[in-house]
Every structure is written in C-alpha cells, then in structure tokens.
Amino acid sequence: MSETFADLIACEDALMFVNAAITSTGQREFHHDAGGQRLSLEFLHSYMLENYREVYAAALALDVNDHNAAMIVRNLLVRAGDAGAERRRLEGRLIARRLDLMPQQRVYRLFRDLRRLKVNNRRTRAIVRDWLAGRAAPAFDAVKYRNGVKAAIRHAHIEPGGELRTFLFAPFRVKAYETPIFEQWRRAHYEKAALYELPYTVAEGFAAKHGIAREDFLERIAPRLTRLERLRLQESAREAKAGAVAVAADLTTMPLTRLASYVLSLPLDDRAARRAELTEALRTAARRVAGAARGSWGKVAAVLDDRYSATGSGHKRRRPLAVALAAHYLLEALAKEYTPLWTSGRTDELLVYPFGPTPLGERIIDALETGPERLLIVSDGWDNAPPGLAADVLRIWRTRLDPGHRYAPGQRVLIAHLNPVYDAEDFNVRRLSPAVPTAGIRNAEDLPTLVELARFAEGRVGLAGLRAHLDDRTARFLKERA
Amino acid sequence: MTFILDGLKTGPAQLWNSVRLVPLIRDEPVPHLRLHRKAYEEPVSAVDVGDGTSYIAFVPHAFVATWNDGDQGQAAAYGTRLLQQDTAAQTAAAPPRMPVRFTRRMARKAGKDRLRFLPLHLAVEGYLALHFGGPEIAWEEWSRRAVSRGLSPRSEETYLGLQVRGLEDALRIFEIHPGQCGVLVYVADSLASAFVVPHPDDYRALHATLVEDLFGELIYKYGLLGAPAGDLTMGIDGAGIRSLADLRAAATLYREEWAAFHDRVMAWDLFDEEGVTQRVQRLHGFVLSRFLPSFGLRKENHIGETITGEDGRVAYLKSFRLSDSQVRRGYLLKRLAARAWRLDATAEALGIEEHALALRLEQAGFGNLLRPDVLDRYRAQAERAAST
Q1: Distance of alpha carbon A132 from alpha carbon A271, whole angstroms
Q2: From B255, which residue of chain A is nearest by alpha-carbon distance?
Q3: What is the top-level taxon of the source organism (chain A) (predicted)?
C-alpha cells in the first residue's frame, strides 16, 4: 500500500464533505442556529472546491440534498475558469443531469443566484438554455414560475418565441391568448371561475385578490393540487372543515420519509385511530424502497433515537425523528429478523414522540444482546445519559467482545451509525465513536447506499478505493440519463 | 446540615459550553404538595390526588400571577408561601405580594398569563431584606432610617438568566428526564443555583422560567469567559470485561460513580454545616424555611428557601449563589447581628479598630446605615491613625 498521509486526509475530507452535503440544508437545527449552519457549510464548500475539485463535482452524483447540489453547481460555474476543457465538459454533463433531477423551483432559484452573482459566462448561458429547452411544459412553467422563468430567460439572453414572449414581458398587450393556460391566467384576473384551472400556488394569489373563502377555494382547487401540496394541506383543510375528503391524499404513493413526517405531525389520538391505514401506508412505502433487497439483510437490530432533541427545529420539524421512524419501517422490510429499540424504551413505533434524554449506551448493549448480524444506530450523536457511554460500549465491543474482532472485517457484526443532523462546529455529522463508521442521512430511502458509503469512514478503504467508488457512481449517474 | 436531598437521584449531566445542568430525579413525587394552581394556565384536573386527601399548594418567591382577589393586574409573590388547598372559596388564600407594572413591550412578550417569575433585582433584594431586619436596638451610631426600615430599600446587583451566556441555549436543549423534579445549574463547574420541586409536572411547568431567574455577578462573569466545561467522567476501562453482562454492570457502576462524585464533590457546598435555618411557616407537616450560609469568606455561599416534609426530605428548594462582594456584606452583617449591632463589640470580635470597621461597612455599601456625623468622626479617626 502506498497510502500517504495526504491521501488519508483527502479521504477524510471527502467523506466529511459528503456527510455534510447529505445532511445540512443551511437551516436551523436543534442545537445550532441557521446562521452557523450556513457559515459552516459555505466554508466547507469553498474548501472542497479549492482543494478537491474532482471530488466536489462528483458529489453531484451522490445523494447530496438539493440545497447542497444547487450550491455545488453555483460554485462550479462561478469558478469555471479554474478547470481545463476536459474537466469542464464532464462537469457540464454532471450539472445538466443533476438539474434534471432537482425540483424546478430550486433550479430557478439557482439561476437567480447566478444572475445576482453576475455569472454569465458562455457555459452558464448554455446550461440555462439547455435546461429550459428540456422542459416538458414551458407554458405551464411560465405561469407557475413566472418570475423565475423571466429572470432565467433574460439572464441567458434567450429569445423566447410566440406567445411566451408576450406573456412574460408584456402580458396585457393582447386581447386573448391562444395557449389555454395563458388565457386562463389572463381571465383569472377578473373571473373567479378561471382561477381553478391554474396551479395551486398561482390560484392562491388570485383567490386572495377575489376574496374567496378558504374552504370554498380548497374544495374547488383540490383536483389541481400536486401530491405533496395535498399532503401538506390535508390537515389544515380539515381544520378549516373544507371537505377533508376532497383533499384526502393517497398515502400509499407518498415517499417514505415524507410520510413519516406526516404521521408524526398528527396528534397521538389521530394516529391511534388511524393505526391500520397509517401502518399500511408506511409499510407499502418501505417495501417499495426495499424493492428486490427485501428480506436480504438477515438479522438486524436498530437503535432509534426518539429523545427530545429529535424535535429538530422550527425549520426542520421532527425531521430526525421522521428519519428514525422511516428507517424503522425500511429495516423491517429489509431484514429477515428485526429488533427495533427506541431510546425511550417505548415499543409502539406509531405513537413515538420526542421526549426524554438519550440512554444510547444502554440501548446499544440491549441491541447487541440480541446477537444481530447488523446493528444500525439512527441518532444525532448527542449521547448524554450518561455522556460518552455509547462510545465506550462500542469501543469495548469492537476491541474485546465482538466474536469476529480478531478476524477480517467481513466476519464482524456490521455496525453503522446514521446521523440526520449536521454539526456546524465540527464540519461533519457528530460521531459516536471512532470504532464505528458514521454517515449523514437525510432521507431514509438512501439508507442502503449510505451503509455502503459508511465503510469508507472506517478507514479501511483508502483514497484509491474511494476514487473508484466515486467514478463508478458518476458513470452510473450519467448513464441513467440515456 | 439543614436539609438532605434524599429521595432525589442524581442523573447524568448535560453539558452545553460552560453550562452544566445536572438533573435530580424522584422515583415518586412528594405527596400532598403541589405548585399553586395559578401556575398553570388552566386548572389541571390531575392536581387532584383522587383519594380525597387534601394537598397543600405552594407559591414560589417572585412568582407572578393575577390573583383575582380585588386587585386587578399582576402581582409577584413576596417570599415563598404554603397555602391551603386552593379549591372553592380561596380568595383569602392569596399570598403576600407586590404589584408588578409592565412596560407595554414586556407584557406583550410574556403573554397575559404566562407562567413566570419576577425577572427583577427586586427578587434578590427581597431575599436579603427578608433575612436582615436591621438593628433591633437603636444604638446611637445607626441612622434613623436604618433603625426604622432595616436594610431595605437597597439594591443588589444581579443578572437575569438570559444575560448569563449560554444558559438560555443550555436550558432550551436540555432534555428533561422522565420523573425529573429538579436541576442543579453549574456555570464553569461552579454551582450557580439549585432548584427542586415536588412533582415532575411542576418541574416541566417551571423549567423554562429558570432563564428569568437571577444569578450573581460571579456566575455572570463565568458565563462571559465561556470556557467550555470538560468531561468529568473517566469512561469505562475495557480491562476485565468478557461479556455483555460485564459491560452492562460496568455501565451501571459508571452511572453510580458519577452520581456519588457529583453529590460528594460538586454539590457539597450547598449544604453548609454552619448555616442558619429560619423556620417561616408550618402547614400540615410541611415546613417552609429560609436558609443562610455561614458567610465564610472565599468559599461558596448559597442562600435559599426550602420546603421540607415531615421526614426532613426536601420537597421544594431554590437557592441563589452569592457573589463575593455579597458574601463580604453578609459576613459583616452577620458579625454585627451576633454582637447585637454594637460597633465596638463587633470590632473587638474581628480584632480591628472601631473606625476601621466603620470604613469597612462604608466600603461594603452600608454607609447610609451609619449616621453621617458618626461616619465623619470615624473617617477623621482613621486619618489620624494613618498619619501617626
């Protein structure tokens, strides 16, 4: 092995960045405020861009969250001149692919950011142009994201043709539009009935303008709602007594972590009353994520954190707990034999709520006693009852008690710690113990890939291995497009 | 020792920068004693013990509420009180109190009936005034005001919990243990305040008010320095552990070691052997008392109030760490009180000249207690003594 010290540091830096980019959204967390998070994240991004540009760009192919993906794209374009032509071509492909996957509103915000930063090189313009050209329904976008589209088109010097140009830049010059959605938008200015044909976010503004009562509005706009809008509005619609049935979302099609968040937002009484429906929805979502890997993980134990700090913050309400709950259902689907252990000692997972301290160390002992093949710990890593016990337990297990500790890593109990919270002061997710790999997690859906990534954090696979892994992921990511 | 913390288990500490919060946990709440119902925004039915036995309510010092017995507006309780069960006709049961007037901004921020304590210097002045009535015998040296009105009104410098850096965050992220009935607040590992209530629900209701509690200058300064407190536990040594059962036993031992260390070392100065306890009120077996430290110079000194049950166990406790200058003042007052406020006798006991004691009193901020002409005479004496 010709691993140098620099290689080790590079490997560590790369993992640190990936963990940060998966978990942090620059929002307030339980322990740290938003300002600290953003400052810390900005630093990490510039550090990576300066020192490991390849790894930085390749992170786009990983499961980094959209906030960080947008930051990466922006920084790559701001510092486009630093890279050679060959690199730039690869980066361009990565960016284009990533933009396709990102929610549109985030892409428009990114374009606006680029405009604010006065980044207007030829490559940026080409990227904006290609992305806009790839949109399936430009007219719909123009109505729903009017300002975003306008800013992007101006910034990239695009000449929009036909009615789009009129709609964006001189909307009331014409008496009538031929494009149906433009025409509805024009009519919605003075005709109440027309606004129900528009996307919800646009119609909401017109409803306020016309003074339409909230319950009437929700009832009639219901068919126009997107899946997530429906989930979000369901409870507020019920409070407003606006035909809850009309807005009822189909829970079985929701993504797993979202669904867990939704379940946790319900009062305990509601959860108990709708137990069968909610459990079924969560199980279905988990089975969908598990796919072919269902039941392939053998004997699994999980330590799941439902202590008070799993409340998250006003920005990320109950996010850590939602991740734990989603992970619970996913592991249930993946494992053949599964033991969940909540830190509070509760056993009814549907009725969890964040409360109490974190006796993480004792729960880990409980979990190890079940003799699992894999042990997963989902926790924000603030082990406080008593502090540091979890680290000691894991260390002693690894060095003395693990039946396979003298042999190859493959024969040992696989322990992984997944942490949903970015620690701004450490520039990384908080670790429980150096003996156990830690990976950041944002959506429970990524759990299988993250466990795979976590083995790099154990320091057994070197920089070369990591590079190979990243190249592999990049290649797969780019190929998916074709 | 004036009281014991039996029945309260020390939990593992939670650390945030320089603030260490140590929870105190009860297996069972203290029966028949609850926080006065005014503390809850709406009457809690759970307060009823159910078996027909009555419970006693307590109102903590400086607790602000609308008492509804004739006077409009909010008032702060002046000195902790025990009250009879506050059921039907309890209008007469309101504690002694002083009205609180808010600036508009404050009232809006606090909400109309939010549970809170008086966030003012008033509270600590109250503490000290409750303890020291002033001279009982009108020796000629004392000014007329000192004799007639005691030490009050006078001000003490204290700081709001909000001003102690890190305390607000530490309290916000603190994870309340199930069954937790109390907390010890350390700043830079120096005990700032102890707080115990009889029932976990009372604790949950009052936890957030600690941020409006008051802390001495010393604690404020320690907070400003902001040196993170370190980990005080040693961790588990892996030697000799051969099975998971061993590991579990080691973990239990680890908890116990911490609790023992905390009780014997960190919190020890709270129990001042030479302190003075003054019984204030007795009601159905519960005794409300105020305690004063020995005012030993250059050591921790806590004043506070306790409610103890028949078995001497603490049901309610609230303490305040005096800063060094306050300790010096308390020391002088205590010496004076012991000698019936005679200056000459006190000076003799301290082994200094009478004029030196007078100047010491003046430096400690008690100049207005002495008659001005007497003080002038002492000053002249001191000058003469210095020149010869």
Answers
A1: 43
A2: A386
A3: Bacteria
Confidence of residue A118 (pLDDT cuts 50, 70, 90): very high
Q: Is B203 on the interface with A (CB under 8 A)?
A: no
| A452 Cβ under 8 Å from any chain B Cβ | no
Banded model confidence at residue A330, pLDDT cuts 50, 70, 90: very high
* Domains and their CATH numbers in chain A: 189-196+207-249 (no CATH), 258-460 (3.40.50)
First to last CA, chain A: 37
The answer to whether residue B71 scores a pLDDT higher than 60 is: no
What is the pLDDT averaged over residues B177-193? 90
CA–CA distance, A393 with A369 (Å, rounded to integer): 12
What SS3 class is residue A317? strand
Q: What is the mean pLDDT of residues A390-411?
A: 75
Substitution target from A389, A395, A430, A433 for chain B, most B beta carbons within 10 A: A389
> CB–CB of B238 and A395 under 8 A?
yes
Size of interface A-B (CB pairs under 8 A): 78
How close A343 gets to chain B, by Cα (Å)? Answer: 12
Residue B167 in tokens: 């305390």
> Is the Cβ of B236 closer than 8 Å to some Cβ of chain A?
yes
Comparing alpha-carbon positions, the chain B residue that sits nearest to A33 is: B169
Res B42: pLDDT: 43
Query: Chain A 119-158, CB below 8 Å of chain B: which residues?
Result: none
Q: DSSP secondary structure string, A146-173?
A: HHHHHHHHHHTT----HHHHHHHH-TTS
Interface contact B14-A399, CB threshold 8 A:
no
Out of A309, A385, A401, name the one closest to residue B173 (CB): A309
Tell whether B176 is within 8 A of chain A (Cβ): yes
Judged by DSSP in three states, A123 sits in helix
Distance from CA of A205 to the nearest CA of B (A): 32
Question: Is A308 at the interface with chain B, CB within 8 A?
Answer: yes
- Averaged confidence pLDDT in chain A: 87
Nearest chain B CA: its distance from A309 CA (Å): 7
The pLDDT value given to residue B44:
39
Query: Sign of dihedral through CA atoms B195, B198, B203, B205?
Result: negative
Residue B239 has pLDDT above 70, yes or no: yes
Cβ neighbors of B32 (< 8 A, separation 6 or more) are B49, B53, B54, B55, B56, B284, B286
C-alpha angle A15/A20/A23, rounded to 5°?
Answer: 125
Gap between the Cα atoms of A327 and A338, Å rounded: 12
Supply B138's token pair. Answer: 């009108």
Name the residue among B12, B178, B255 with its Cβ closest to that of A384. Answer: B12
> How many other β-carbons are positioned within 10 Å of the β-carbon of residue B216?
26
**Structure-block tokens of residue A437:** 């790999």
Contacts of B150 (CB under 8 A, 6+ apart): B129, B132, B133, B134
- The string of DSSP codes covering B212-261 is GSEE-HHHHHHHHH-PPP---------TT--SHHHHHHHHHHHHHHHHHH
pLDDT of residue B49: 40
CB contact under 8 A, A396 and B238: yes
For residue A400, the chain B residues in CB contact (below 8 A) are 238, 241-242
Every domain of chain B and the residues it spans: 8-269, 342-387
Q: Which two tokens stand for residue A17?
A: 């960045």
Question: Tell me, what amino acid is at A222?
Answer: A
* Tens of pLDDT, residues A207-218: 999 999 888 888
Please tell me which of A152-156, A395-399, B86-90, B230-234 the model is most confident about, judged by mean pLDDT: A152-156
